[in-house]
Amino acid sequence: MSTQTLQSRLRGLLKPSVWQNEAQPGTHSYLHGLRGVLALSSLLWIFFQTFVPAVVSHSTAGPTYQKVIRLVFSPVLWNESLISSFFFALSARSICVRFLNEPKPVAYAGSIIRRIIRMSIGVALASGIASGIFKGLGTSYLHTFKQVLPNNSIAVSERPNDALTALNAMFDLFWVVRSYFYQAANDFWPTQTIWNLSLIYQQSWTVYFLMLILPYTRASWHWQFIAMFAFGSFWMDSWGWYDASALLLADYVINPKLRVQLEEGLKITEDWKLPLALPGALMAVAGFAMKYLWTAFPQYIDEELVLHPYLDLAENTTRGQFASADPYPRLDNYLVIFGVLLIVETTPQIKELLSARWLVSLGKRSLSLFVAQSIVFWTAGIKLYLHLHLGHGTATATANLAVFVTCAVATLLFAEVYYRTVDLPSQWVARQAYAWLLR
After folding, report:
1. What is d(CA 118, CA 174) in angstroms, rounded to the nearest whole number?
2. Res 24: pLDDT
3. What CA–CA distance (Å, rounded) separates 109 from 100?
4. What is the rounded CA–CA span in Å between residue 46 and residue 38?
5. Count of Cβ atoms closer than 10 Å to residue 428 Cβ
6. Distance between CA atoms of residues 392 and 381, nearest Å
7. What is the pLDDT of residues 85-118, one digit of tens each?
8. Are 180 and 326 in contact (CB under 8 A)?
9. C-alpha distance from residue 271 to each of 266, 291, 414 (Å)
10. What is the pLDDT of residues 53-64, one digit of tens each?
């Protein structure tokens, strides 16, 4: 083989299009664009949560101007609960698209199996990378950082005792169905946020169950069926009402009979129909109003649990225990998320805006960015801050600016490497593995 031929083949292997999913009917680039917006918001959150915690959390003291910034901007721009719940809803909105477009057994089974393989590879390697880095660096510098800043809003990452413990932690990511906050993999992960992937994976089975029914029943009955399930989930305060709402929205976008109703709007009279963007806007405003209320009065943040009767009837838990044991689906987040999605799905101009190439590219790399930002900010970022602030006496604000610029660039680079070497290949392996199963 000549050198030129070898170089040509290597370029082909490294070219992203080789690994990309084949074109799928009903794939919407604006959903990737929404993920891109959330990825930027997530970057802001991890920086502020780590280095300027008073603009994110009320549990760490800070100057008055930081508290004002938190009250004014955090509910909209870097609210952790909203970001994670929005990613959850977008996942539920997206995973049903292939099957609803092509309701065949091969499409249904493929959606499930490819997702299992892709997530197993990507998340396991991410956990392994993080564990390996912290094993080499140790965690003593994290304790120093918490005291120097100070920052009471973060917890120091733990390290697995051995390789078997690390392996079991990765395995359990795809098996736990409760206590997401307290699983070992989450303790080992910088920022303790990998529970999001575990929750998204587990709750996807609700969508898989529900979506199987829709193509084979009357379209006009879909919303009643989904609404009944959503009401039961709301009663229990499980994530099912998010799943059901996302699936119903996807159904209205994809099903030709229902799509007409979505475009025509809400029928008030025979001659007057209300564009669905308007109730969507009202939902979003109401949700943000609630978020501002809880930001100003954080002691009442879990009071919305009174809306879920199951918690008052259950003998095995209380509202306080329920709130502390697991992430739970919040009403304020729901109103914002599905209000925004209603606006986006019914407004072509916003779809076009969100379909900007750079936003779509960020959205496709959202998993890679999640992995990269957690590792980069908690290793290079904290190390750089300590070096500048303690080693050279640099002012906190200047050190923070240097950390943000340096780590933002490093995160983009790290994410691109992870995307090309792990995420895209894992998608390719998932497709090839499923194709092999069909032979």
Report:
1. 12
2. 43
3. 13
4. 12
5. 15
6. 16
7. 999 999 999 999 999 999 999 999 999 999 999 9
8. yes
9. 11, 37, 55
10. 999 988 888 899
